[in-house]
User: What shape does this take?
Amino acid sequence: MRRPLLPLAAAIAALLITAAPTLACGGLIGPNGAVNLLRTTTFAGYKRSLLLHPPFAILSSSRVLASMGFQMLGVAVGWQLYALTGSAFDLGLIGLVQFVPTIVLTLGAGQVADRYDRRLVVGLCLLAQAGATVTLALGSLGGWLDRTGILAIFTLLGALRTFENPARAAL
Assistant: This one.
C-alpha cells in the first residue's frame, strides 16, 4: 500500500516546492517572511479573468496545444519506430536524441536569445519545427523514412526546442 502513495507524495511535494516562488512574487511575502495582506496583487484581486484578455488567452491556449501536440508526436513516432525496428532500445533513443541537444546547446541558445530578436528566434524555431514535422509525415506516408532519418529529425526537433525555450521564456 505504501508504493502507490509514494508518487502522490512526490507530486504534492513538487507542487509545493514550485508554488513557493509564485507565492513570493508581487511583494506578498515580506523580507522577514511575514505575509503582507495589504497588497492585493494576486489573481483574486482582479475584477476580470485573465482568460478574458484575448492576447493572454491566445498565448496560453497555443502553448498548451503546442505542448500536447509535441507529446503526441513523440508517442506516435515512438510507435512507428518500434513498428519499424521492433527494438525497445530504438524506442528509448527517441527520448535521448531529443535530450542531448538540450545539454549540448543550452549555453549557445541562451546567447542567441539574448543577442537577437526573441520573436524572430521563436518564429524561426516554430517554422523549422513545422517543416521537420511535415518531413516526418511525408516520409512516413511515402515509406522512405527509416530509423536513421527519424532519429535525425528528432535530434533536429530537440535542438530547435532548445533554442525556442529560452527565447520564448524571455518574451
Remarks:
- The chain is about 75% helix and 0% strand.
- The longest helix spans residues 54-85.
- Residues 1-26 have pLDDT under 50 and may be disordered.
